[in-house]
Each structure stands twice: as structure tokens, then as C-alpha cells.
Amino acid sequence: MHDLHNRWSPITKTTTKTIDNMKTIKKPLLALAALATALGGTAHAGNVYIVGAQATRKSVTPAIRAIPGIQLIGTSGATTNNSDVDNAVFNLFKKADGTFIGIYWNGGEAAVRALLATNAAFAKVPFISTNTTPGTANISTNSLLTDTSGVTADLIQPTLAVANTSAAISRFNGTTLSQFLPGATTATPQKYQKAANDVKVDVSTYGFAADRNWTNTGVTSITAAQARVLFKYGNAPLSLFTGNSADSNATVWLSGRDIDAGARVNVYNEVGAGGLSDTYNHKAFAYVTNGGVKTISAIGLWPATQVDGLAQKAGNAGWAQGSDSIKNVYSLLGGTNLQYVTTGNKVITAVTTNFTATNIVTNPSVGVNSNFGGTFSPVDPATGYTVALKVIGKTNTYSTFTIASYYKTTNYYTNAAVNLTDSPAARSVFTTNSDASITNQWTKDGANYLLTYESLANIGNNSNNNGNGQLPIFLSYNGVGAAGAVATPALASTVATTYAANGGYTLWNYDHILLNSNGVASATVTGVRDFIQSYLATNVAAPNLKLSAQNINGAGDGATAYPVGISNQ
């Protein structure tokens, strides 16, 4: 998909007006899928709308395809072939009775949010319009995510979610959160229902992956303790992973998912970092291509933003889709050839004048040309440099002043309480751009590496090759697994069936089908849930696992698992 860290929240102009007038909706928005005001397509009480984690799509989509008399209407997949449909983010099916099943794989936590929200701004998500011509493929995900006219997408609250965590550990289950409605400048309390029904249906598996240059490190496995450090700080010296002090000038950068991802919750829980903890994810800001090989040339924290109306500090956002997370694993330029980008800075400029004639800076009737020497600096204070202003049409009429520009998170211009004496010889202080990005050389001269985590269904998926046609390096976890080999579908399946199923590899969790109160009340929704559950009892696409294939017991959600039949007797 694309860089959509600010996940779907826009609603129609009519609905926006309603929300603005009502401020905070306090009563649950029940039966939204049946409202006649649903955009574009036919809203029908018998329709079923499903959201969920990408880690589950290659198992659940075949289950929907197996419903007798089902017909594919539209897909965001490249073709209507089953393999493309099963990998698609959006699908729409029509049952023999004329009702529809819409699917949007929006992320495990995002699915719970949409299912349980009581405010339409956070409940309604896009599904392929029921007006779509049967057999339509390659529907643009961007058009679905941005359509507010109802031409491509129907905005509906789902009644069934396939989450890769239990409802009990979700930030959206029966809670009240402070969130920003679309276009709002202040947050308001938003209430969420508790899931009305939660059943385990299969097992999803996860892992760590790195860019192709990682093979130069000699590291084939990552431990839980190493992961906790990386998740806490967002980067770490390579020596943390090798144990070799000579690697202290090489840097490992964290790339990861946003708060809507069940994969993030599961992996952070498993390593002991806390599933709902904040983190410091990095993203590429620029690339170079040499010999047809694309390489990251500039990196920085994900900018501060909002996800689901929740304010995110710099670094806590990330990839909205697991497939994008893997598609964007590239090698980085080494040492100080890599540029480091910081965003969300205030530009503070301290000026000392040495004008001896007409002040051509403050006199608007005098035209000037300017010549700047020096560069902006991210440190406080910066070294001063000279700016010369030349009167237009004059050959020797100059005024000069010394200027030092640097960056602080406090806005001097609007904060009168700030003491300006820390600006060098300040005569005037002004700010030009409150969202400035600074690009500087990275300070360490060692190699740079990118490390991420994701479901094995995404790590070992050939549809997720990056622009160089490559899947990433697949690492073992706590010494068990892929041993630093190039990811393949077969390797992902082997790690799941050989190691995760038998207890040695512990990066896994149960997948759950959740229903809200409206879904529980619908025989059609519960019927679809029961069909999926029955299908997955015997048919699960590797590297996910059937419940019966797990030779270990455990509650999941980060709890300790143990082999079946073990006892202290």
C-alpha cells in the first residue's frame, strides 16, 4: 500500500457536520452496517463486514471463498486469481442469497477500534462498494482509503473482527480514550464497547527481519533482551548484537508498525517490552539508486502525527500495513554517508546587526539581494556566520550582520517566558517554520543496518519483495528459527511448523474472532463466524497454524507456553 500512518478517519461532509454539532456521541452506534445512509452501495441488514489483521488474511479469505454459492465482486488484488485475492487488502463477495461480505485487512488493533467504537468517526471504515461491477480487480487501495463520495467505497462499521490478539489486551476494549476527531484541535473522550464475543480460531507467527547487508554482521539471531533495548531507543550499536566492541560505531535502526498493528502488540509482549508501549520507529526519507539497486540515503524518526485520533510523538507512528513494512526493508548507506533527518523542529534565529547606514532589513522601500554563508545547525547555540545584504542597483552598498540559526523544541516567538539570553548576543529573535526538517550527516562512521519485525505471513511472502526484488534476511529468535537466511515462503512455513508448533520458537499468538453487540445479535454474522471457525479447524494457510497443530499449551498474549502433557510428577 503506501505511507498512510494517519489511518482512515475521514467521514462524509454530512456526517462531519453531525459530529461537530453533537460534539461527543455518548451512545453506541449500533447497527451502522444496516443504516440506509451508508455511502454509495446498498446497506442491508444481512451484509457482513469484516476487518482484521493482515497476518490472518491468507487463512480467512479462503474460508470466505469456501462458502457455498459465494461470488467475488471486487478486489484490490492485481487479478481475480485466488492467490491475488487472498493477498488483497480489500475484497467484496456476494452470497447466494444476495447479501454481501466485505473485507478490509486494516490491522489487528485497528480492527478492534472500528468494531468497538461508539463514534462514527472511529467506527466507520471503507469497504468496496456494493455497486461495484462483478469481477472487478485491481481496485486502488488509495481510492478506497480516500473516497468520501461513495463512488468506490462504502463507509460502514464492521460487526466482525479477526484480531491477532485477544480483546482483553486491546487499548480499545471497553475503554475511554482521549482522541482528536477529524479536523479538531482538541481531543475529547471517546468511549468503546467491550467485545461481546471472543473465540480463538488459529495461530499466527511472527519474526525479526533485516536488510540484505545484515549478513555482513555475522549475527543470525536476536534475543528478547536485545529487542527490548532496540524498541526502547529506536537504534542501538551493532555491538549490542555481536558482543564485539569493534562494532560500536555501526548502528542498527528500528523500523516497525504503528499502534494499530496487532503484530506490534504481539512482538512487544513476547519480548517483555509491553504490547501497548511507546517506541521509536525510523523511516527512510531519501534513497539513492546505483546499478539498479535502491539504497536508503536518509533516515529519521517517523514524524509526530495522529493515528486513530490518538496523538503520537515522533517515532511512535510506523507502517500501517505489515506488507508495506517488509516492502520497505532496504540496505542503508554506510557511516557518515547516511543523512539523519529530524522533524517537527522550531527554527530559532538570533541576529546581531552591525549596520552603519540605512537599515535595509527593516526598510521595505529598499530592495535587497542576499548572500548566505554557513549552514543551519541542530545544536544550541550554533556558530555564527555572516549574511551580506546588497542594495539592488548599487555596487558597493552592503549591510552585514551576524546570524546564528539553530533548532529548539520551544517556540521562542510565541513563548514570552523563554529567556532570550541563551541566544548569542540576541538583538532580535524570530521563527520561520514550526515544522522544519533538519538533514545532517550521521555522526558514526560504521555501517548502518535496518531491523524490523512482522508476521511470518508477511516476511515470507513473495508479494512483499522490495523495489530491488528482494525479501529480507530472516533472523532466528532466542537462537531458534531461520538462522539469518534469506526469507522465503518455505522457510517461513518451516519455522512455524517445526519450531513454533513445538515450543522452541515463541514468537506466536492466537488469532481471535471478535463480535460487537450488534454482531452477536445477528444470525447472519454469527453464522459467518461459525463457518470461519469451522473452516480454520482443518484448513489454515502456513505459516499460520491450526489450533490442533500446536503441541504446546498457553494463554497467548505474551503468557508463557509449555509443552502438551508436561507435569511435575
Overview of the structural elements:
- The chain is an alpha+beta fold.
- The protein folds into 3 domains: 13-203 and 510-553, no CATH class; 205-341 and 443-505; 342-434, no CATH class.
- 19% of the residues lie in helices and 28% in strands.
- It contains 14 helices and 29 strands.
- Strands 1, 2, 3, 4, 7, 10, 11, 12, 13, 24, 25, 26 and 27 form a 13-stranded mixed beta sheet that branches.
- Strand 16 (305-307) and strand 17 form a beta hairpin.
- Helix 2 crosses helix 14.
- The longest helix is centred in the C-terminal third of the chain and has 14 residues, at 523-536.
- The chain starts with 12 loop residues before the first helix and ends in a 6-residue tail after the last strand.
- The relative contact order is 0.16.
- The model is unreliable at 1-43, 346-391 and 397-434 (pLDDT under 50).
